[in-house]
UniProtKB/TrEMBL annotation:
Residues 29-207 form the Heme-copper oxidase subunit III family profile domain. This is Probable quinol oxidase subunit 3. Catalyzes quinol oxidation with the concomitant reduction of oxygen to water. Belongs to the cytochrome c oxidase subunit 3 family. It comes from Macrococcus armenti. Keywords: Cell membrane, Membrane, Transmembrane, Transmembrane helix. It is a multi-pass membrane protein. It is found in: Cell membrane. CDD domains: Ubiquinol_oxidase_III. The chain crosses the membrane at residues 29-52, 72-91, 103-122, 142-166, 186-206.
């Protein structure tokens, strides 16, 4: 069934457009259920990493404290946290029926996310050159599984936001696509929160602890 995307004026625009329709409310509910499953997934990956992070073939093999570079991880963290802030600005303008400003802030979010992804790929390449690979040790496998799964979610989030921008660039705002933009932004926040835990548990505790 085709969706009727009614264009609204500022005066008619609801204060909470993301839940102004039944479909929007259902999307939000379904998304929170989905996030519950995602939380269990990452909790399992964190538990696996903590159990295996000290399992290396020999004493001279690279450990977290010898391998990780906190300045690089910190820059990556700042990029992702800033992108979360810019997505908040995007939703603020969405609620004020300012479509062009919303799109601008989502584009900035995408650029920051791509910067994070580029640094993560650079980091993986450096580690592989040093002999820290997925198959080098249990530590390597658990590290790449956890951080790589998060990176895959970043790719999904970026693709999601980019496709929303492209698809709705000429359509303007409606309560139908407002729910979609809101859900994508919430997904992006979830990705950022997971990274904060990765930075703390993997990088910070790995180097300092």
């Amino acid at each position: 069934m085709a969706h009727h995307e009614e264009q609204m004026t500022v005066e008619r625009w609801p204060s909470h457009p993301e839940t102004a329709s039944l479909e929007g409310k259902n999307k939000l509910l379904g998304f929170w259920i989905f996030l519950g499953g995602e939380t269990v997934l990452f909790a399992s990956l964190f538990a696996t990493y903590l159990a295996l992070k000290d399992h290396v073939p020999s004493e001279d093999h690279l450990l977290a404290k010898d391998l990780f570079h906190l300045p690089l991880a910190f820059v990556m963290t700042m990029l992702l946290l800033t992108s979360s802030l810019t997505s908040v600005y995007a939703l603020y303008h969405m609620k004020n029926f300012e479509f062009k400003k919303m799109i601008t802030w989502f584009i900035i979010t995408v650029v920051l996310g791509l910067g994070f992804l580029g640094l993560e790929i650079y980091e993986f390449v450096e580690y592989i050159h040093q002999g820290h690979t997925f198959r080098s040790s249990a530590f390597g496998s658990s590290f790449y599984f956890l951080v790589g799964t998060h990176g895959f979610h970043v790719i999904i989030g970026l693709t999601w936001i980019i496709l929303l921008i492209i698809r709705n660039m000429k359509r303007g705002l409606s309560v139908y696509n407002a729910a979609k933009f809101n859900t994508a932004a919430l997904y992006w926040h979830f990705i950022d929160v997971v990274w904060v835990f990765i930075f703390t548990v993997v990088y910070l505790l790995g180097v300092l602890g």
